[in-house]
Each structure stands twice: as C-alpha cells, then as structure tokens.
C-alpha cells in the first residue's frame, strides 16, 4: 500500500491485523521487512501493526531530498493522519527512534499513547565541546569515508558486530545475509544522507519534554550506537522512562534477542 507525502513522494507501508495500532519505524538502510519477527507476534495478540518504508528505502520512492529527521518525522505524521490512527504506540529502531522523537517535537502527542526507542540514535552522537560524552568526530568521519569508498565492504565488516554473534548470539549466516541484502537494496544516496543527518542532530533539549510513556531498549554490546553514548543517556533525559539493557545484544537485537524484546514490548504496550 502507498500514500503521498506533502512533497508528492510516494511511500510504501504495510498494514496487518486489527486492534490498537503499533507503528514500526525502521532503521536507516532497513525497511519494513526488518520487523519480520515482531509483526506476526503482535498481530496474533490482537494488535494492528503498520510498518513504513522510509523514502529511499524498501518499496518507496527515491527522491533526491528529504533524508533529514524533520522530513522523516513529517512523513510519519502524514501516514498516521492518512490512516487516522489514534492511541498509537510508535516503535522506532536506530534512526527510526530519532524520527519518533522528532515527530513528537513537531506534531505533538495527541495521537500517540506511548513510544518505544530501540537501539536509538539519541540523544546526540557526535562529540562536541558541549557534548564531551559523544563519539569523537574523527572516528565518525572515518567510518563515513569508508562507507562512501566501498559500501558493500563496510556493511560486510559490520555484519557480525551488528548482531554481536561473538557473544554467542544465535543468528544464522542466512539471516545475516538477508539483512545485508536489505541494506544493499537501499538507495546509496539515501544511505549517505541519512547517516550524516542522524549523527549530527542534537535531541537533548526535546527529550525532557516528552509527555507520553517511553520505553528504551538497548544492547550493551551495540557498536553502531554505543550504549554509554545513547541508551543510558536517553533514559536519563526522558521523564519516567522504562529502561531495558540487554548485556549481550548488539544493534540488531530485534533479531538476536527477539523473544526478550517482544516480551518487553508486549508488556509495555499492554500497560495502562
């Protein structure tokens, strides 16, 4: 299924089940297919599950612009309004988590019941004079340069760390290959723009203003979004946030720790 955004971009989404809505917002490079182990789980338990393909990703259009977080948040708002969703649980992974936060900052929480931020790229990744806890810029820039130089090589080098298989997580080579193929199918231009935009956005001022229940889930072995820079700091900034840290999880905990994550998310969504 498709809808059009304010600038005429045609975006794809999937919509399954009936009941209270959960909207899944994917990571940069990944699409709605990443939620393969979440959507059936929640549909079978009486929820309506909607998953969006960000512009440049999956089956959506590939325009030349709109890969900033504010446009991503606005695209999400159009989808929610298009389907006239209410009492929504927003679940965002990585860059998707940052877009969820920007959605609340730009569009408010009138339609939103709660949010779950999963391995989210928050609150501010790049180290600056007023953000000494961030990742040094030289490391980020070197990684971006390697991505630009040989994207398939960069992704292949990240694959095992993405699921933290070195810690004994049971993720098959076929699953890893499937995830890599999703990433490689994404518009290279979109990848380049998304990576730069998410690393340099400062959410620290808006996180304390979140007024809906929030759950943060993060892996202690997350190489892409180091937990001491992201998850732990985000949990401290959002009032009353529920925080789950998985000791052996990497960035791809939605696969490697699917049972634990699904149970934690179900408990959170079901809470009143």
From TrEMBL:
It comes from the Bacteria. One of its GO terms (cellular component) is membrane. One of its GO terms (molecular function) is hydrolase activity. It holds the Pfam family Abhydrolase_1. Coiled coil: none annotated. Gene3D superfamilies: alpha/beta hydrolase. InterPro entries: AB_hydrolase_1, AB_hydrolase_fold, AB_hydrolase_sf. Residues 30-256 form the AB hydrolase-1 domain. Keywords: Hydrolase. This is Alpha/beta fold hydrolase. The lineage of its organism: Bacteria, Bacillati, Actinomycetota, Actinomycetes, Streptosporangiales.
